[in-house]
């Protein structure tokens, strides 16, 4: 059995243009071009290349690093001493009141930055002894502080020392 193959001659149909569409009841007008992904205002917001909902939340800093940054801001003169009122306990606030007016970490050149902050945790995890190094241009300073966890589970600064200007220092000789 033989089958004859016949080819139907088809007239090419014009393809609809993407730049112009017809709307019912209106003359043929070109539609305004839109950005890829849809009309203006319908694209997801956020940083380029990141899909909404897939962005990772910022990593929380450990409490000793947060306190080191706070103390650096007060001792460099960026923030007033009373900024630490709810974050201190015991003698720490009085220590800051004595140390901060001299702004020992203020620099006329580059802004002081926290280089490193390391801790030694108490065995019952209610206190932390922290040591931080602070760089101001080529100069490196040291700062030590103690954090204690209160009954409300919040960390508060209990003591501060800076290059020997801590609890035992009263005033510098003139």
Compact description:
It contains 2 helices and 6 strands; from the N terminus they run E-E-H-H-E-E-E-E.
The overall pLDDT average reads 78
User: What structural category arises from helix and sheet content?
Assistant: alpha+beta
**Considering DSSP H and I runs of 4 or more, what fraction of the residues is helical?**
10-25%
Poorly predicted spans: 167-174
Shape: elongated
N/C terminus separation: 119 Å
Round the Cα radius of gyration to an integer and report it.
33 Å
Based on DSSP secondary structure assignment, what is the total number of beta strands?
6
Query: What about the largest sheet?
Result: 4 strands, antiparallel
β-strand amount = 15-25%
Q: Give the helices and strands as they follow along the chain.
A: EEHHEEEE
Strand order of the largest sheet: 3-4-5-6
SS field, number of helical segments: 2
What features would you describe in this structure?
The protein has helices at residues 63-75, 92-99; strands at 20-21, 29-30, 113-121, 127-136, 139-149, 155-162. With 174 residues, the protein is of the alpha+beta class. The strands form two sheets. The protein has a four-stranded antiparallel β-sheet. It has a two-stranded antiparallel sheet with strand order 1-2. A hairpin with a 2-residue loop joins β4 (127-136) and β5. The longest helix is centred in the middle third of the chain and has 13 residues, at 63-75.
Question: What is the strand and helix layout of this fold?
Answer:
Elements lengths: L19 E2 L7 E2 L32 H13 L16 H8 L13 E9 L5 E10 L2 E11 L5 E8 L12
Antiparallel strand pairs: 1-2, 3-4, 4-5, 5-6
